[in-house]
Amino acid sequence: xxxxxxxxxxxxxxxxxxxxxxxxxxxxxxxxxxxxxxxxxxxxxxxxxxxxxxxxxxxxxxxxxxxxxxxxxxxxxxxxxxxxxxxxxxxxxxxxxxxxxxxxxxxxxxxxxxxxxxxxxxxxxxxxxxxxxxxxxxxxxxxxxxxxxxxxxxxxxxxxxxxxxxxxxxxxxxxxxxxxxxxxxxxxxxxxxxxxxxxxxxxxxxxxxxxxxxxxxxxxxxxxxxxxxxxxxxxxxxxxxxxxxxxxxxxxxxxxxxxxxxxxxxxxxxxxxxxxxxxxxxxxxxxxxxxxxxxxxxxxxxxxxxxxxxxxxxxxxxxxxxxxxxxxxxxxxxxxxxxxxxxxxxxxxxxxxxxxxxxxxxxxxxxxxxxxxxxxxxxxxxxxxxxxxxxxxxxx
Length: 396
Known about the structure:
It is a single chain. With 396 residues, the protein is α+β, with helices and mostly antiparallel strands. It has helices at residues 83-90, 150-159, 177-185, 188-197, 204-213, 224-239, 252-264, 271-285, 329-335, 374-389, and strands at residues 3-6, 16-22, 29-30, 35-40, 45-49, 54-59, 65-68, 72-77, 100-102, 242-250, 291-292, 299-300, 306-307, 310-312, 315-317, 320-321, 345-351, 354-368. Strands 5-4-2-7-9 form a 5-stranded antiparallel β-sheet, with no helix packed on it. A 4-stranded antiparallel β-sheet has the order 1-8-6-3, with helices on one face. A 3-stranded antiparallel β-sheet has the order 10-18-17. The chain is elongated, with a radius of gyration of 29 Å. It starts with a strand and ends in a 7-residue tail after the last helix.
């Protein structure tokens, strides 16, 4: 018999999943276990294996669509069945319509821990410029039978758009995100937004000036990774009491050591490799600082696991390097990409009463005040500076 496959909950607690790409087309034969689609979660792209077999009758959502968990995504027909058997599964009801929202998908990347960066509040929607020659609004749709996904309803409310003016192009006339964006881009949407947020009267000159100096914008939907970064950074900044300690390190000896190593070693060592090693060494020097706050007790670690920030097109990731204090510089270099380049800069400093030029690197420690107090943070930072300024101590 025909089978209606719905969007699975491929990630715990997820309410919407991005269907990144279909690997099958209408008419294709599918067996149990065949990878029929790629689905994007907040952390990775997951292959979805079919739990049914048959011939693909209808694909109900497009590549790149964001789909509510439990919504229909594809219909398979059993051997000998015709299309009517598959169509009957939808039943023409609103409840069976897929909640698909068009959204571009970030390129798949290796799963990794998200790096801490300063959270950036999303910009408020800005009304697009009103164009005197804008095309007429799309013909109204009967509101009593209009199917609209929750995300589109929210966006419409934010932009002051009456959904009755927007024609849906999704399954069974459903209004999806691309329909709302097309409506806004047509100029009619811009008029609606301006009307909803502005005073009722304008002079002709002020309206012309608004058209001349207003700037348009392009809506770039968030990827799963960007949503995860925003959520975790917001949680971190709002729930963890941070404080910061800064110090300058003289790194001439470090740069000389790196130069000597690289002249004789086939594996090139970066400044970043040595900095990561110094962080781990300082944690071993001041073990009281190698802790994580927990509601019930403090977790004190015996090993130094260091997260290193890596930039990607979708945002920052922080792969974790385990047991750094036990690793050699060459071993670290093989696992860590060249991230820091030359992090030092020449500055004038006073040394033994004389003004000299030295390479100085400024470092800032961000600490959780629940687990580390100011005196302990200063003690750790002093140990770090000592290791950085005497890099040979990390090789013995």
